[in-house]
Amino acid sequence: MTDATALLILGLCFLARGAGWLIRHGPAGPHPLTLIGLPVAAWVAVAVVLGVACLVVAVWHQSTAGVITLALSVALISLWGMAFLPDSLATFLERGSVYLALAVMTMWAVWRGKRGEITLDIRADPKGATAWNSSGRA
User: Fold this and answer.
1) Rounded CA gap, 37 and 59, in Å?
2) pTM here?
3) By Cβ atoms counted within 10 A, which residue in 39, 76, 79, 128 is the most buried?
4) Do 54 and 73 meet the contact criterion of CB atoms below 8 Å apart?
5) How large is the angle between the packed helices 64-82 and 40-57, nearest 10 degrees?
6) What is the separation, in whole angstroms, between the first and last Cα of the chain?
7) Dist. CA 96–CA 90, nearest whole Å
8) Crossing angle for the helix pair 3-24 and 64-82, to the nearest 10 degrees
9) DSSP track, 116-138
10) Which tens digit of pLDDT belongs to each residue from 70-87?
């Protein structure tokens, strides 16, 4: 129940996406992200680099690098989904909604996992007693 699992899943997803684009020599059908000026090869590189980063930082999922990589992953998936908004409603519902659902499910899973964590911050005062505040945290 840690962010490491989410990072592993996203890492494999990005690597599969990059590999699929390499094998096919581009995305299946027209993709709106190519309209912003980056060629398909750049999107392949972004997907593969982010996929490898997710797999590497899964070991240190509680670090700042883990949090940033997870945030970038969700942001990129959201960007891919929102790129279909200017297209027809049917295309957005068919393709863009899947990306946005993956982003929302990832955020939900990470948030749900964080709810079960209990953090104790115990600090001894100079007299040796431990003080508790009203939030339940030490």
Assistant:
1) 34
2) 0.63
3) 76
4) yes
5) 150
6) 24
7) 10
8) 50
9) T-------B-TTSPBP--TTS--
10) 999 999 889 888 888 887
